Every structure is written in structure tokens, then in C-alpha cells.
Amino acid sequence: MGRKLTYLAVVLLLVLVAVAALFAVTYRTIDQRSGRDESRPADVILVLGSAVWPNEQPSPSLRARTARAIELYQEGYAPYLLLSGALGRYPPEEAEVMRRLAVEAGIPQEALFLDKEAHSTWESVQNAREIMERQGWETAIVVSDPFHMHRSLLMAGDAGIQAFGAPALDSPTYTVPARRAFYTSREVLALWWYLLQRTVNPA
Does residue 27 belong to any structural domain of this protein? Predict the structure, then answer.
């Protein structure tokens, strides 16, 4: 019995070490990718949604993402914005809040396309692909928080979108060290879950 317990303890320890090592490698991959800006001319700028706060106010993350997209539009990287995000805890839809910010910044309504149905990153890229196909678009700049870039670009590629990343480097999820560590750590688990689903249920 003693040997069996020792063997099980050793196996458990090795498993924990392996998981910790894999976590560290994945964390480093996500964090290294987070600060890389691939902005280049494209057909559309796809902005992934983030939380809306009470009183119809954008969360700092949502504001940072939208501001980065507006900047790219004003610099001439793409002639259209595709704003993606459904209704969350507080109204209105994330896409609607982004639309308001874009209009306030002087972007014309005809340059804005809204997806108010997406509740996840995967739904955003799937819906974006459908809209892009209808419009005859092939390339997209994807804007999101830095920690989210690795997974969102992976998903975009899996959905058939030729995508380039433009992280919102001003987001507090990146500029505040504790938040950067928290959101990157959480993203490790989200990435693992997506990769597991992709393996079990390949498209």
C-alpha cells in the first residue's frame, strides 16, 4: 500500500509539473503575441466586443478597442468598420455602443456594419465571415485587447478570414500589470478549451 501511494504521489507530481510547464509556455506565447501590431491595408476593420457598463457606458476595454479601430480607419487602413457584440449584462448591445463612439468621432454611418448577434469570439468571426462574403471582402484587421489577439486571430483563420491583428495597447487589461497577468492567465484556459473543442469537433 505504501509503495502504491508513493507511486501515485510521484505520478501526480509529474502531472502537475507538466501542466505548470504547459501553462507557462502557453502564457508566454499569448503574451508575446499580445503586443505585436500587424496593421496593414485591408477591406474591413473587425472590432470584437467587450462589456458595456451601467448607464450605457463602454467599459474601458470596449472604449480602447473602439478607439484603436477609429484610429486605423482615420489613418486609411480600411474603409469600413465591422462592430461585433451582442447584448450583455447591461444594454444596449456592445456593437451599438461602439457605433455611437465611432459616429461621435466623425465616422460616417455608411462605413459602419453592425453584428449585434455575436455572444462569443467564435460567433463574431463566423458572423464576420458571412458579412465579408456578402460584401466581397477578403481581408480584415482584427481589433481586440492584447491578451485576446492570439486566440481571436487563430479563430479568424479557422473561420476562413485572412486576418491581421491590431491590439488595443491602451487597454487597462494590458497597461496595468496585475490585470495583464490575470487576463492573460485566464486566456490560457480559454485557448486550451478552444483547441480541445477544435480537436474533438473539427470543422
Answer: no
